Amino acid sequence: MSPAIDAPPPGRLTPGRRVLLLTILIFLAPVLVGGSLYIFGWRPTKMANHGELIQPPKALAFGELAGEVRTRTAGKWLLLIAGEGPCETACTELAEQSRAIQVSLNRDMGRLARIVLTAAPTAALRDLQTRQPDLMLVAPPASWQPTLQAGSRHRFYVVDPAGNLMMQYAPEAEAKGVRADLERLLKHSWIG
Length: 192
Description:
Elements: H1 15-39, E1 52-59, H2 67-73, E2 77-82, H3 89-104, E3 112-117, H4 123-131, E4 135-138, H5 144-148, E5 155-159, E6 164-168, H6 175-188
Parallel strand pairs: 2-3, 3-4
Antiparallel strand pairs: 1-6, 2-5, 5-6
């Protein structure tokens, strides 16, 4: 006959049980805190992005673009410059900034295409396109205008490789903020 092992009385916490419960509590605490914050609607006061996320993203009809533009932008993130009216000085400066943003992405610069939506490009914009052949000047498709809601001043927009308008910037947005957002998007994106 083997000796009997004394079992602890029911309801008593042994040191082994305390360690087990403490370990379970350590792993469950972040889930419980995060879940309760979500349920009660807490949101951080400051977001990490510099632009405004468009919730939900809006699909742009890429079938309306010319074949060459569709081919050159297939599977790429797009940095659009759009606004109502002609693309004049401020718009041309945005186009120049878009090149600096693209080049600063280093090895990811090939994942980004740049488009200026304008029906009547100015001479300065045509000259810029001559110096930067990857800059595309495209007449804005009619169906895009209600989706973009561009306003009178030109601004940056970001379109994902699936053709969804997902971020917009204020007309006075700084290029380094746009670059930081694009760098973060490209780092964490599996598409494009």
